[in-house]
TrEMBL record:
Keyword Signal attached: yes
Region forming the signal peptide: 1-27
Superkingdom of origin organism: Eukaryota
Keywords from the UniProt entry: Signal
Protein name: Uncharacterized protein
PANTHER family: LEGUMINOSIN GROUP486 SECRETED PEPTIDE
Length: 145
């Protein structure tokens, strides 16, 4: 009798646990669908800087948006940055005594694009929205920005 009572309780506990796990697995896709990809992208700016110079070149030292610490980019190396979309973001690059200073992001000229790519070459900085078609935006100036 006592044994039967126990196994009935164990069964109830097992059934309850199954029900709870079911609810958890039902709840998970539900919360995911309420945070969809376009919501997540709404306020995020993605910036990519890639040093496309030939391998024998010196580092490019990139200062993002007036930050004091630069990022060293060897030829063939890239740097990506997430930021907000509020206002212009500058980037100052130094290479071999030359400077190239750009607006890495300028909301008035990006046409609503939230991904902006920069390719840094021996003749200057190239801009793209798709990391494939490039337009030259700025050359290097010796010893000043
Ligand atoms: C995702 O979010 C966008 C913007 O808020 C909305 O228009 C769209 O209906 C949502 N899609 C789904 C599947 O919830
Ligand atoms: C841009 O394209 C280059 C060359 O295809 C690739 O190496 C790089 O990872 C791409 N950058 C991003 C941020 O996708």
């Amino acid at each position: 009798m006592w044994c039967r009572y126990l196994s009935a309780r164990v069964l109830v506990v097992v059934v309850l646990m199954c029900l709870m796990m079911n609810e958890l697995s039902l709840a998970y896709p539900f919360s995911e669908s309420s945070l969809n990809a376009s919501d997540a992208n709404i306020n995020v700016l993605f910036l990519s800087f890639f040093n496309g110079m030939s391998p024998n070149n010196k580092n490019v030292n990139l200062f993002y948006n007036n930050q004091k610490d630069g990022v060293y980019l060897l030829p063939g190396k890239g740097f990506t940055k997430l930021d907000n979309l509020n206002g212009r973001k500058s980037a100052e690059m130094w290479w071999n005594g030359y400077c190239c200073s750009i607006y890495a992001y300028d909301p008035s000229t990006e046409g609503g694009h939230q991904k902006v790519y920069w390719l840094i070459k021996e003749d200057g900085a190239y801009h793209s929205w798709d990391n494939a078609s490039w337009q030259k935006r700025k050359g290097w100036t010796f010893n000043k920005c």
